[in-house]
Specification:
Elements (H helix, E strand, L loop, with lengths): L1 E6 L5 H10 L3 E6 L2 E6 L1 H10 L5 E10 L3 H10 L12 E7 L7 H20 L12 E8 L2 E7 L21 H11 L6 E4 L6 H10 L21 H13 L9 E5 L2 H13 L7 E4 L12 E5 L13 H15 L4 E6 L2 H5 L7 E7 L2 E9 L2
Parallel strand pairs: 5-6, 8-9, 8-11, 9-10, 11-12
Antiparallel strand pairs: 1-3, 1-4, 2-3, 4-7, 6-7, 12-14, 13-14
Helix pairs in contact: 2-7, 3-4, 5-6
The structure holds S-adenosylmethionine (SAM).
The site of S-adenosylmethionine has 20 residues, from helix 6.
Length: 374
């Protein structure tokens, strides 16, 4: 059993713990901006392939008391790096956190890198080169309360970058946050789903991938663990093969995304094409005021402009009132969720929310507001 840590956005620790447990994580415990869990190599690969909420899955190599640069160097040198990194492989080191005496992450990372390559030089008279773009082995060191935790980053590029969305709207949601909002909404694949302000389509796309049981990692070119000396290509191929075989072809209920900006809808369609779900989502260039519900009941989920990120170039209060009116008059029988980063604007919706869940969108504190529409 290895010790793993999935990094997630602040506020999503509990829901990410549930997701990881569903995937088979053992002893999953929410922490600060992450979830600690354990499991075998198959679990590590499966979580990278299937988890929709984490950014990275770190594999813990060591944890030791560390106050200053000497402790850090000595602690890293005590480890035997050969199983993880041979001199023919490239490396990069990323550092997070601090102690009183080690408060520059760049210096911390450099100290760790030096300790590793000095060990290689002593043993092999050769050392790994640094590659900050696409290293074979990405090492992560985290300092907290005079302890250093050294891990290998099994994901490489952040997992929220699924690989289907080169095209971006004006203020796109991160794919991982979109997935979290869908989980929080309780949407089930047999329900209709509508985002009337869909931008580049992140919410309908993530819901579609869930509904079709498509693994979010299948679109990515590469995971960090593929560069490791212990990479088990057969195991990885088996997991990918199983994921392909378990996919569904069709959603049983309507999946709709609309936006008044026709150019953004072209982007959303191109994203849908990239993940081969074009036939499953109706993306329409349509003004909010003209939207009709695509079914008698379902989940409406959207993140309207807050003003903060898109600029206050119009009367957002009137826009939020319109959103409330459309939800109330045209979406009877539905449950609506609005991600709001502005309390005053949320009030303009003019409906009573039945639940408010705090969520961070980047650094912006938001609330996911729930409305029962009947
Ligand atoms: C914050 S963005 C949504 C981003 C989206 N969730 C994504 O991930 O790309 C809000 C969207 O609302 C759209 N919008 C603003 N006013 C609208 C209106 N009256 N009717 C339809 N869409 C509108 C904007 O064009 C913008 O794309």
């Amino acid at each position: 059993m290895e010790q793993y840590f999935a990094t997630v956005a602040r506020g999503l620790e509990e829901i990410a713990t549930q997701e990881l447990q569903t995937l088979g994580a053992v002893d999953a415990e929410p922490g600060f901006c992450g979830v600690a869990f354990s499991g075998d190599r198959e679990l590590l690969y499966r979580v990278n392939l299937w988890a929709r909420l984490p950014f990275r899955i770190l594999v813990q190599v060591a944890s030791f008391a560390c106050r200053d640069a000497d402790d850090l160097y000595a602690g890293v040198q005590r480890l035997d790096w050969e199983p993880y990194l041979t001199p023919d492989l490239t490396l990069a080191v990323a550092a997070t956190g601090k102690t009183r005496q080690l408060n520059h992450t760049h210096f911390t990372a450099l100290q760790v890198k030096n300790a590793i390559v000095d060990q290689q030089r002593d043993r092999f008279h050769q050392r790994s080169s640094v590659d900050t773009q696409q290293p074979d082995v990405q090492i992560n060191v985290h300092l907290y309360r005079d302890r250093a935790t050294v891990s290998l980053d099994s994901s490489g590029d952040s997992l929220h970058r699924r690989g289907y969305r080169p095209a971006m709207g004006k203020a796109p949601l991160k794919e991982s946050l979109a997935a979290a909002l869908i989980y929080l909404s309780g949407w089930q694949p047999d329900q209709a789903f509508c985002d009337p302000l869909c931008g580049s389509g992140t919410l309908p796309l993530e819901a579609t991938l869930m509904g079709l049981n498509r693994a979010p990692g299948l679109f990515r070119d590469r995971f960090g663990f593929e560069g490791w000396p212990d990479f088990d290509a057969k195991l990885w191929q088996r997991l990918c093969q199983q994921a392909y075989e378990g996919q569904k072809d069709m959603l049983p209920a309507p999946m709709v995304g609309c936006d008044r900006d026709a150019k953004i809808i072209i982007q959303a369609r191109s994203n849908a094409k990239n993940c081969d779900v074009s036939s499953q989502i109706a993306f329409r260039a349509q003004e909010l005021s003209t939207i009709e519900a695509p079914d008698d009941s379902g989940i409406l989920l959207c993140n309207p402009p807050y003003g903060e990120r898109l600029g206050r170039d119009e009367d957002l209060g009137a826009f939020y009132k319109l959103l409330g009116d459309v939800m109330k008059q045209r979406f009877k029988g539905w449950t609506a969720f609005v991600l709001s980063g502005n309390k005053a604007l949320a009030k303009s919706i003019g409906l009573k929310s039945s639940q408010r869940t705090p969520v961070l969108n980047g650094n912006l504190p938001c609330q996911l507001l729930k409305y029962e529409l009947y």
